[in-house]
Amino acid sequence: MTDEIKRLKAENRRLNKIISGLSPSLEIMLKRRGFTIYRKEPSDDLLTPDRKYKAAFFNKLKKYSFRLFLRDVIKHQYSFTLEKVTRYATIEVSAQYIDFLLKAGLAEAFGKGYRLTKRPVKSFGETLEWFVSRLIKNDFHAEAAWGVKFKRPRVGGDYDLLAKVDSSLLYMEIKSSPPKGIYDREITFFLDRIEDLSPDISVFFVDTELRMKDKIIPMFENELRRRYKKTITAERIVRELFHINKKIFIINAKENISSNIEAVLTFLWHREFEIT
Q1: Domain boundary among 116, 150, 171
Q2: Rounded to whole angstroms, how far apart are CA atoms 62 and 84?
Q3: Model-level pTM greater than 0.85?
Q4: How distant, in Å, are the alpha carbons of 187, 214, 215 from that of 210?
Q5: Nearest to 199 by CA among 178, 169, 240
Q6: 72 and 142 within one domain
Q7: Same-domain check for residues 203 and 66
Q8: Does 109 score more than 80 pLDDT?
Q9: How far apart, in whole angstroms, are the C-alpha atoms of residue 152 and residue 4?
C-alpha cells in the first residue's frame, strides 16, 4: 500500500507539472496585470533553522500551539524562561519546543534561561508568510511567492502571498495577530490591493482559532458598506470560513490551515451550478 501511495503521489506531481507548464507562470500572470516584482521573500525577520532542521521546523509550524509559542519567544527574544512561554501549551510540551529550538540553533542558553540566536526579530509575520507559502507549494503543488513588493505608487505595502493555483491568481493577506490586533485600515488596504491587482481568488487569513464573526466579519461588512453604499454580507462556507460574492474569502486557523485553504478551493471549484 505504501508503495502504491508513493506511486500515485509521484504521478500526481508529474501531472500537476504538465498542467502548470500549459498555463502562464506566476510572474507572467502578474506582468499581464501590469505588475513587475521589485522585491520578494525578505529575510530580515525570518526565523528559520538551517537546512538540516527546516523540514522538522515546517512540520512543527503546522501546530497552532507551536506558532503561539514562537510568538511568545519572539516577544521575549532577548531573555526568556520556560515559564514565560507556557501560556498556550503545557510545561512538558513547551519544554520540548525549547529543546527543539536549541537543537536547531534558533535559541541558546542565556543566564537562567534562553534567548534567540537571531536578534532582533520584529514579529512572527515573515516566518508565518514563509510557512503558508511552503504549505501551498507542498499541499497544492502551486507556484507561490511571499512578501512581494511592487514598484507601484498607487497601492503601497507588501502582498503577503501570491500564488498560481492552476490558471488562477491567488492573493492572500496573512495576519499573525489575533483579531483584537487587527484594525479597520488593514481591511481597507486589503480591499485596495484587490481592486488594484484583480486576483481571481482573494483570501484574508487570520492565524487564530477564535471566531471571525465577532470582529473581523463586521469590519469587512462595514468597509464594504462605506465603499459601495449598500449592504454586502459575508456568507459562511463552514465553521469560521466565509466568502463575499464567491470572490473574497475570510478564514482562520481552526482545524488546520491547509484544510481550510482546501475548503475554499473546493467551494470555489465545485460550487453548485446556478441557473439564472
Answers
A1: 116
A2: 22
A3: yes
A4: 18, 9, 10
A5: 169
A6: no
A7: no
A8: yes
A9: 49
Query: 136 with 245, same domain?
Result: yes
**Cis bond before residue 120 (omega within 30° of 0):** yes
Q: Which residue has the cell 508529474?
A: 14
User: What integer is the mean pLDDT of 15-28?
Assistant: 71
Residue 11 lies in a domain: no
Whether 197 and 168 have beta carbons less than 8 Å apart is answered as no
Q: How confident is the model at residue 23 (pLDDT cuts 50, 70, 90)?
A: confident
With beta carbons less than 8 A apart as the criterion, state whether 153 and 167 touch.
no
Please say whether the beta carbons of 192 and 223 come within 8 A. Answer: no
CB 145 within 8 A of CB 40: yes
* Alpha carbon distance 84, 75 (integer Å): 10
Q: What pLDDT does residue 272 have?
A: 46
Whole-number pLDDT of residue 29: 95
What pLDDT does 151 receive? Answer: 84
Q: Quick check: is 133 in a domain?
A: yes
Closest residue by Cα to residue 256 from 27, 53, 21, 64 = 64
Structural domain boundaries, residue 211: 23-42+124-270
Distance, CA of 95 to CA of 107 (rounded, Å): 13
